[in-house]
Amino acid sequence: MNIFTYYDDIGFDNQNRILDLWKKNWSSFGFNPVVLSNRDAQKHQYFKEFCQEIRSIYKRIKGENISKYDFCCHLRWLAYAAQKNAPFLVSDYDVFNSGFSFELFDKYESSTINFLNNQCPCIAYGSPPAFEMFAKDIIKISQDNVENIKKISKDPYHDQEFIRCNYTILKDKYKFSQIKNIIHYSHHEAYKISEMAVEEIRIHLITRDFKWQ
Question: Per residue in 49-93, pLDDT tens?
């Protein structure tokens, strides 16, 4: 089974090292890891409109221009939607497999997205049409609920904040669950240890837990 991640160079240090570790980890469990980028998102016919709309929505909600990081968080769903493969797994490249296999996916529908870490979109399973539907929902639902989102949004309006702010709408359309045997080496968790050398901390934790040099 393929597992896709999304990466654009937006100035974070040591990301190629984390990407290499991510590929090594998922390959060791029999998956085929594939790294997508902005070039893949551009292949989707909705690309130009999506970019224009998400920049406008962010400005309306947050009163400022969208950051490169938050923009990538949204754009990755179009990169997944542009693929021609059968249903597949997607994850952030700091999400690591610690012991689950293909059999897990037999129970999941491919006509929708199955978010596998509750409201955090760091790992999910679905088909290209389902990922396209989600990208379009980011725009439509956000546009329809701008004023309410402005009141309740606490964080930058990336895809996780979109889910949090609009969960009552999304929970009847998409599947949210919590799988075991994944580890998310997020920036948020690394910041709990130290705000300095965050990328080095993430690499240290990954190599420590998986005994890689």
Answer: 999 999 999 999 999 999 999 999 999 999 999 998 789 999 999
Please, which residues bridge with residue 95 across strands? 184
Q: Where are the domains of the chain?
A: 2-187
What Cα–Cα distance (Å) separates residue 35 from each residue in 29, 51, 206?
A: 17, 21, 19
* Closest C-alpha among 137, 132, 134, 166 to residue 149: 166
- Overall fold of domain 2-187: Spore Coat Polysaccharide Biosynthesis Protein SpsA; Chain A (3.90.550)
User: What span, in angstroms and rounded, lies between the C-alpha atoms of 134 and 128?
Assistant: 10
Q: Could you give the CA distance from residue 86 to residue 73 in angstroms, rounded to a whole number? A: 23
Contacts of 126 (CB under 8 A, 6+ apart): 80, 87, 88, 90, 110, 112, 113, 114, 134
| pLDDT tens-digit readout, 40-52 | 999 999 999 999 9
